[in-house]
Amino acid sequence: MEQLVTSNFRLGIIAGGQLGKMLVLAASNWDVKTFVLDPDPTCPASGVCTQYLEGSYQDYETVLNFGRNVDMLTFDIENININALIQLKKEGVRVHPEPEVLMVIQDKGLQKEFYAARNIPTSAFRLFGSKEEILKAIAEGSVHFPFVQKLRTSGYDGKGVEVIRTEKELHKLMEGLSLLEDCVNIKKEVAVIAARNISGELNTFPMVEMEFNHEANLVERLICPSSEPQNIHARAEELAKEIISALGMTGILAIEYFVDKDGNLLVNEIAPRAHNSGHHTIESCITSQYEQQLRAIFGFPLGSTKIKIPSVMINLLGEKNHSGLVKYEGLTDCMSIEGTKIHIYGKRETKPFRKMGHATVLDPSIESAIIKSKRVIELLKVKSWNQ
Fold it and tell me: Domains in the chain, ordered, with CATH?
């Protein structure tokens, strides 16, 4: 059923980081009133939303009371109090994506079991209850180097993930419920964002490829469209539709894949929200991922995802050895590069590798966009005033 948008409609957004800010900006085009819950009064969305509420999205009563005062609830982070969302849904509050979907995605172990049960290709894995269990399995010879350890919950932006290559790196093992994956012989990492609205209509954005800062385990540069063969594009989009449909999810879902050296496509992780791999859509696609999220949860027809112009997106990360009040260097020079669009998120303080903004370089030639993006990376630095 279509959701009528009026000047009195209240959209609740849990978490007010950069994703929440960009969702608020998209909602403002439709005169939707946006209410944001976040523990940080200076969060990026606090300066652009209709009303900001300070509070923890992990606290049951806080989330419950927040949800009871809006017409629809969505989120830009996974680490939310699930029990509060379930109760709100029982009370008739529209929560999109659905709490049941978030319950699966919050736990990387449940994610993996979801893939395995549906024969969705992913790297081989085992679940462990503690660091001691992992060490025992290594001693018994059932776990071999190299492997990847991921904490089942609370990981984000490269945190909660460790690559253990040799016995000498066992000191990096994390404590807690975790999964171990076989290391994949990776040729490339790619991503697709899928959308599904209330009526079950499906659409996907064109596949992108990602280049990582391996020290921070974060995306440093994203290229759209990907240079991978068309059969990989088609398979990635097909799998994305299969996964979001199997979840029965309303909203947008980001799916990150590995392409291995043999050309196999393996699902790595999924996120039930707007995603770093879709920032470029603001300028380079007919519909942005943020407008698409709103279209999906409001029950509107999904927008066209066609590429208007090729693009390269660069994450603006805090420089190493810089912490404190932020300053940006090289903005003027970067803005003189034709086709460069810069987004500053509004975080007051920088930290090493913290996501502080992004730049999207647009050009009819993807090769030219890549060359320009290298120049932006050289020029634009995120530093602190006191260092």
Answer: 10-95 (3.40.50.20), 124-182 (3.30.1490.20), 186-384 (3.30.470.20)
